Amino acid sequence: MILSTMVNHSPSQEIILQGFKKNKHQYRQKLKFLKQKNPSNLDMLFLNAHEEVFKTFDCLDCARCCKFLGPRIIQRDILRLSKELKINSRDFILQYLRIDEDGDYVFKSMPCPFLMDDNCCMVYGKHPKACQDYPHTDSRKMKSRLNALLKDCEICPAAVIILDKILGEIL
User: Residue 115: which of 97, 104, 103, 127 has the closest Cα?
Assistant: First the structure.
């Protein structure tokens, strides 16, 4: 565990992220080893760690994902959000979305247009699927997500804590 002492003493979210960035090379090496080791229970380990961390981690204290990440917006999101906002889909797209370099819809600007001053989401419960699932640490096939997880750890302190728990259990 790279940040084990930090995690046990409830450090600020910024300290967790700084520790991750400082030790990113070590994390990358450990994840490479983890891929090679390929534990059969990796998904379950991540799910358990995810559930444990999110019992106490309050995303409203952070909201970095809403401030710095532009989620991919799929058609179902557009339909759900436009209905919630009582505007038609075309107007929702024109007002809030652009097409990124991968050809996906994303918000025109960040922070998220639905992030309020108290870090609450104006459309919570109807928010995009990518937002609902973030930081994706309870996903199936986590082995295929490990590279993406490294990027998520640059934004999400909960992802760092979860990864640190996994590395502590496996390595």
Answer: 127
Compute the average pLDDT of residues 28-49. Answer: 93
| Helix, strand, or coil (residue 115) | strand
Q: In DSSP terms, which residues pair with 42 in a beta bridge?
A: none
Tokens of 15: 């300290």
The pLDDT tens digits of the residues spanning 121-131 come to: 999 999 999 99
Single pTM value for the model = 0.88
User: Of 59, 141, 156, 70, whose CA–CA distance to 107 is shortest?
Assistant: 70
Work out the angle at residue 160's Cα, subtended by the Cα atoms of residues 1 and 166, and round it to the nearest 5 degrees: 50
Task: Give the number of residues written for the chain.
Answer: 171
Domain boundaries, the chain: 4-63+137-170, 70-133
